[in-house]
TrEMBL record:
Its cofactor is Fe cation; Fe(2+). It comes from the Eukaryota. The keyword Lipid metabolism applies. CDD domains: Acyl_ACP_Desat (cd01050). Binds 2 iron ions per subunit. PANTHER family: ACYL- ACYL-CARRIER-PROTEIN DESATURASE-RELATED, STEAROYL-[ACYL-CARRIER-PROTEIN] 9-DESATURASE 7, CHLOROPLASTIC. It comes from Salix viminalis. Keywords: Fatty acid biosynthesis, Fatty acid metabolism, Iron, Lipid biosynthesis, Lipid metabolism, Metal-binding, Oxidoreductase, Transit peptide. GO terms for biological process: defense response; fatty acid biosynthetic process. This is Stearoyl-[acyl-carrier-protein] 9-desaturase. GO terms for cellular component: chloroplast stroma. The keyword Lipid biosynthesis applies.
C-alpha cells in the first residue's frame, strides 16, 4: 500500500499534500462512516449481545496445497533472503508520519494545526469520504498480517521466526503501519470528520476479518496481494492527484 506525500517543513509553509479548493456551496460539517442507532433501547440491547461477525455464506476450502508444493517454498528460503529481504529499507532511512505533520514539541505547533485545519476546511466532503476510506483500509493492517500468516509454508510459526518469509511479513507490516498512522492523525487534526464513528468502523472491520479464499496457499495468497497492492497504489495516487488539482 504505497503512500507518497511531501514533508511538513515549517509553520510558514503550507501543507503541500492537501490544498484549498473553492468553498463547497453545500457541505455537511463532518464526514461519518458508521451509523449509530437513535433508539437508546436498541443501543442497550446491542451492548448486551456478544460481538458476532457476519457468518460465512460460502464453503471454505482450507489447506488445499499438497505437501510437495509446500516444500517448494521451503526450498526457496535462501533465494527469498537474497532477493526479497534486500528490498526492505532500514528503519532509520524510512519516512515517519511525524515528518508530514505539525510538530507537537515545537512552539509553533498550534499555529501549524490552525493552518492545517484552514486548508482542510475547504476540501469538499466527497474528497474526505475517499480519504477516510483509504485510512480505514490502511488501519485494517492486523487483518492483512493475519491473512499472510494463514499461508502454509511461509507463515510466521512463532511470532518471531527467522524464516525470510516471516521476516518479510513482519517488516512489511511495520512499514505499512505508518500509512494508517499518518492518515489517522491528519484526519484527527483536520477537524472535518467524526473520528469516533470512524474508529467504530475500523473496529467492526478488523473484528469481522477477511477470507480472500486463498485456501492457505501462498501461490494464491501472493497472487492476490500482488494485484491488491497495485490497486491500492493506484487508488492512493489518484486521491493525491485530486488533492493537488484543488490547489488554488
Amino acid at each position: 500500500m504505497a503512500l507518497k506525500l511531501n514533508p511538513f517543513v515549517s509553520q510558514s509553509q503550507k501543507l503541500p499534500a492537501f490544498a484549498l479548493p473553492p468553498m463547497a456551496s453545500f457541505r455537511s460539517p463532518k464526514v461519518c462512516m458508521a451509523y449509530t442507532l437513535n433508539s437508546s433501547t436498541k443501543e442497550v440491547e446491542s451492548v448486551k449481545k456478544p460481538f458476532m461477525p457476519p457468518r460465512e455464506v460460502h464453503v471454505q476450502v482450507t489447506h488445499s496445497m499438497p505437501p510437495q508444493k509446500i516444500e517448494i517454498f521451503k526450498s526457496m528460503e535462501g533465494w527469498a533472503e537474497e532477493n526479497i529481504l534486500v528490498h526492505l529499507k532500514p528503519v532509520e532511512k524510512c519516512w515517519q508520519p511525524q515528518d508530514f505533520l505539525p510538530d507537537p514539541a515545537s512552539d509553533g505547533f498550534e499555529e501549524q494545526v490552525r493552518e492545517l485545519r484552514e486548508r482542510a476546511k475547504e476540501l469538499p466532503d466527497d474528497y474526505f469520504v475517499v480519504l477516510v476510506g483509504d485510512m480505514i483500509t490502511e488501519e485494517a493492517l492486523p487483518t492483512y498480517q493475519t491473512m499472510l500468516n494463514t499461508l502454509d509454508g511461509v507463515r510466521d510459526e512463532t511470532g518471531a521466526s527467522l524464516s525470510p518469509w516471516a521476516v518479510w511479513t513482519r517488516a512489511w507490516t511495520a512499514e505499512e503501519n505508518r500509512h494508517g498512522d499518518l492518515l489517522n492523525k491528519y484526519l484527527y487534526l483536520s477537524g472535518r470528520v467524526d473520528m469516533r464513528q470512524i474508529e467504530k468502523t475500523i473496529q467492526y472491520l478488523i473484528g469481522s476479518g477477511m477470507d480472500p479464499r486463498t485456501e492457505n496457499s501462498p501461490y494464491l495468497g501472493f497472487i492476490y496481494t500482488s494485484f491488491q497492492e497495485r490497486a491500492t497504489f493506484i487508488s492512493h495516487g489518484n486521491t493525491a492527484r485530486h488533492a493537488r488539482s484543488m490547489e488554488t
